[in-house]
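Action item from last meeting closed. Structure (243 res):
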């Protein structure tokens, strides 16, 4: 069992609670016509025993977390109530974890996670890996479609290449909330919110996706072994609208 919750995590949780109203107001605005959302993935790690993440042990309350690549699970572990990405003993390329929901988020998704990095580089991908039918006429072709790319590069955070004004400092926890929705035309829509959980500073914006919305069934966190330093992840969640 993890140790008692450190004071800094209690403070972060309190700040996140205060900012929750802001996040909810922003992310649900675009989906105002849909009143009921339900969880299809959740991982808090608070009651998970410390140890490696190998894809076989259960470390999430809902959904499944597996190492990427699957043949080298040594780069991911639960420690002290958080998921930690470390540098594997013999790195051969990018590595990390994939969080898959219990069911694909059809027609819309709200994806949330907390991260703290001591590394210069972290890549987060929100994707549809099966192109499951979302609308009449949809085709299953087995391709992978990346809807949102969140990249931490030094002190900068970029979303689909767009830089955030919020500075990313090492050793500081940040909360990311992303709402993705179907659009009226060919492109989907998204709302993005990033919050510094220590200072309360946040930034929010809305934009169009480069591709049509496709059912979200993958949240992937990867790290380059060429950049030293651990990455800590916590409170992962994916919501889907009711049909």
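Sequence:
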């Amino acid at each position: 069992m993890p140790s008692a919750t450190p004071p800094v995590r209690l403070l972060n949780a309190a700040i996140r609670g205060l900012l929750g109203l802001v996040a909810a107001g922003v992310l649900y605005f675009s989906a105002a016509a849909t009143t009921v959302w339900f969880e299809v993935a959740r991982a808090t790690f608070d009651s998970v025993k410390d140890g490696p993440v190998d894809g076989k042990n259960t470390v999430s309350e809902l959904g499944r977390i597996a190492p990427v690549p699957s043949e080298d699970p040594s780069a991911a572990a639960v420690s002290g109530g958080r998921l930690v990405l470390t540098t594997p003993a013999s790195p051969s390329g990018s590595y990390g974890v994939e969080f898959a929901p219990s069911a694909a988020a059809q027609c819309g998704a709200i994806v949330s996670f907390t991260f703290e990095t001591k590394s210069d580089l972290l890549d987060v991908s929100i994707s549809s890996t099966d192109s499951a039918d979302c609308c009449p006429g949809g085709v299953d072709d087995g391709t992978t479609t990346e809807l949102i790319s969140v990249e931490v590069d030094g002190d900068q955070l970029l979303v689909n290449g767009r830089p955030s004004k919020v500075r990313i400092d090492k050793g500081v926890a940040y909360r990311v909330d992303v709402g993705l929705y179907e659009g009226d035309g060919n492109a989907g829509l998204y709302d993005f919110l990033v919050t510094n959980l220590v200072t309360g500073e946040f930034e929010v914006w809305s934009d169009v996706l480069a591709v049509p919305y496709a059912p979200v069934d993958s949240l992937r966190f990867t790290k380059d072994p060429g950049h030293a330093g651990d990455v800590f992840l916590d409170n992962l969640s994916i919501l889907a609208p009711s049909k």
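Note appended to the action item: Helices lie at 7-27.
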